[in-house]
Design goal:
522 residues, alpha+beta, five-stranded mixed β-sheet, 8 helices
């Protein structure tokens, strides 16, 4: 609910920006440690390591072994268990794409030997952890800005570049990529090499698809803090708002931080918009119609800054370092958000009531493929077969394609037991029963059909007798092949022969091409 600059002990890192901060032991504040590595102090690049112990609010500079990564800034550092994976950045002369690992228990550095093709050297990119995989997006070097996505699998120590559906965001650096619910990465802001950005994109790492979302803005002016400036959104957002109401929302920016607070809410702090350095805070709520709001926060906010770092521990956001163009910082601030979250829930409800336009689609259930995957998963769960859901989704089997499944298909999906296959097949038949048998034919209609059949037989016999009489009268042998060779008329068309083939149509035989036959053209 308020900003605080706590008292800390120990030897703090020197002032810096474009460094990284990684947390281990995050579940409990008694075990949480923040690892600060590298950055730029305004004069030179750094490669020193510092630890902040959250329980005692104490800084320490540990002694490490192994080959320390070279000086760098604009890199990323990702904590997985007790290991820190440091990737990329720039050393002032070159851009980097090397990967180093710190064991936070033994304090030993090592350079990783990896398989696959590494991303191009870059800095100011993002790294987001999903399970045991690190998703790298964007960044840039002296001449290029990237919008590619790479995955580093820490289990196999291999790089890969996945094929991702949908329209990717424009290339950018200095953006944020924050992990939300259900494996979705929320991308915000950055710089595309020409201008600052404040767009929002979603990378669904389960479906491997990109999408963008239009975010509503709050319907009331924010409370302006004594040491901050109000931000105005671009004019392009005016169409999203109720007429006559002044909208507010985060300005386009880069070098900010985005912190996930749980319940599909993200807090954005600081950055720079190209003309000034910022210290404002914004809530992005993704629970319903995505919306921005400006929280009311007491206390003295940190001075405006960019290229700082933030972590969320025990309902507190911890902000360290950064710079404003002329200064670098080594201060540490905390923002207690527990009470603030409760106030924002009420504020968001009031803000959304004033939005008169059609409700935006929910972020969490967005595309049709995701809905189909959810439906088939629920269906299998109802049969006690949830463990097979991932296989069905991977093969794009949904409720619409279920009726076409066979037992051999199920065996191909890895459902090896006969009992499981029979249970699924029985459920499919129950869900899609056979069509009802046709109604019995009335007895009077049956009698009429029999009478008609008898008449046809009599007529056929008479016709044969007449034909035989005519043949004898004209002296034509019954077994003569003259008639088909000359051709005979049938329903207004000529039927004839060509070798071993009979043809129907004009007087020229058609080639019996197998492809034509297969396509049903004849």
């Amino acid at each position: 609910m308020s900003w605080t600059r706590p008292s800390v002990t120990g030897s703090a890192p020197s002032a810096r920006c474009a460094h990284t901060i990684s947390v281990t032991g995050q579940d409990e504040i008694s075990t949480a440690k923040l690892f600060v590595f590298g950055g730029w102090n305004g004069t030179r690049m750094l490669n020193d390591l510092h630890i902040f112990y959250c329980d005692s609010m104490t800084w320490n500079r540990p002694i490490t072994t192994g080959a320390v990564p070279g000086f760098r800034a604009g890199h990323t550092s990702t904590a997985i268990g007790t290991q820190l994976f440091v990737f990329g950045g720039g050393d002032g002369s070159h851009y980097l794409n090397d990967l180093h690992i710190l064991d936070s228990e033994t304090m030993a550095w090592s350079q990783a030997y990896v398989a696959g093709t590494s991303p191009a050297a870059r800095s100011r990119h993002t790294a987001t952890l999903i399970g045991s995989k690190i998703f790298i997006f964007g960044g840039g070097d002296d001449s290029r800005v990237f919008n590619d996505t790479y995955i580093f699998d820490t289990g196999t120590m291999a790089w890969s570049r996945p094929i991702i559906k949908g329209e990717p965001p424009v290339a950018r650096w200095g953006h944020t990529a924050t992990l939300a619910e259900d494996g979705k990465i929320i991308l915000f802001g950055g710089h595309d090499g020409t201008q600052m950005l404040n767009d929002v994109h979603v990378l669904d790492t389960t479906q491997l698809s990109w999408s963008s979302i239009n975010v509503k803005y709050e319907m009331e002016p924010p409370t302006i803090l004594s040491n901050s400036s109000p931000m105005s959104p671009p004019a392009s957002h005016a169409s999203n708002l109720t007429s006559g109401v002044t909208p507010t929302g985060p300005s386009a920016r880069a070098g900010h931080t985005s912190t996930y607070l749980g319940k599909n809410r993200i807090l954005v702090f600081g950055g720079g918009d190209g003309s000034k350095i910022l210290n404002d805070c914004w809530f992005l709520d993704l629970t319903d119609a995505p919306a921005w709001t400006r929280p009311q926060i007491s206390g003295t906010a940190p001075p405006g800054r960019c290229a700082h770092t933030s972590e969320f521990i025990d309902q507190k956001i911890i902000v360290f370092g950064g710079g404003d163009g002329s200064r670098r910082f080594k201060d540490l601030y905390t923002l207690d958000i527990d009470q603030l979250m409760k106030l924002e829930e009420k504020k968001l409800k009031n803000a959304k009531k004033q939005i008169k336009q059609k409700k935006a689609p929910s972020l969490l259930v967005k595309n049709p493929e995701e809905i189909k995957a959810k439906d088939i998963t629920q269906w299998l769960t109802s049969l006690g077969m949830k463990k097979h859901a991932e296989k069905f989704v991977a093969e794009e089997i949904d409720l619409e394609t279920l009726p076409h499944l066979t037992e051999s298909h199920l065996e191909h999906l890895g459902i090896t037991t006969i009992g499981s296959r029979l249970r699924i097949m029985n459920a499919i038949r129950t869900q899609n029963p056979s069509p009802p048998s046709p109604s019995p034919i009335p007895s009077d209609l049956i009698d009429a059909i029999k009478s008609l059949k008898s008449s046809v037989e009599i007529l056929s016999s008479s016709t044969q007798q007449l034909s035989e009489t005519l043949r004898q009268a004209h002296g034509v042998d019954r077994n003569s092949q003259l008639e088909p060779q000359l051709g005979r008329r049938s329903s207004g068309k000529i039927v004839g022969t060509s070798g071993d083939e009979e043809y129907l149509g004009d007087s020229r035989p058609k080639a019996m091409d197998k492809n034509v036959l297969a396509n049903g053209h004849l």
